[in-house]
Amino acid sequence: MICRPIYLGEKWLISRNCCLALPRPPIKLIAKELTSTSVRLVWSPASSAGAGRPSSSISPSYVVQYVEKSTDEAATGGSGAVREVTDIGATEYTVTGLRAHTQYEFRVIATNVLGRGTPSSPLDVTTAERGLQLSHLNFSSLI
Question: What pLDDT, in 10s, does the model give residues 9-42?
Fold first, then answer.
């Protein structure tokens, strides 16, 4: 296989087996289960082929980032502290330790040996009230 070099900012990368690139953003981020203190997120990896990017056999790991969104912060344009969970080896993850009836923004980033790719589209989720559990939700269809 003949590979063309890839320019990464200030350096070129050439691989013997395949051409490497930062991973594309995960797609179809949804909340499958929702409680007052947790959200189970599920997503699909983006295809690494197409759009000018060669396919790669490297399996990415993922980072889930989330931030609590409050009414005061939305009014002032500020944002809360971004929390993240790293080294997720699957395309789903349950975020725990959340506050009841609180709005959060989630996004997922694929990573590989070159670094972090572009984040997924954000997903806004409001946790359930205390004692409630909701399953099989697709919040993206509500927008």
Answer: 666 655 555 566 889 999 999 999 999 999 999 9
The letter for the amino acid at 82 is V
In this prediction, residue 137 carries a pLDDT of: 53
- What are the C-alpha distances in Å from 98 to residues 6, 37, 78, 141? 41, 4, 20, 23
Among 48, 50, 72, 74, which Cα is nearest to 59's? 48
Domain-by-domain residue ranges, the chain? 22-142
Burial of 37 (0-12, 13-18, 19+ CB in 10 A): middle
pLDDT of residue 66 exceeding 90 = yes
Instruction: Tell me the pTM.
Output: 0.71
CATH tag, 22-142: 2.60.40.10
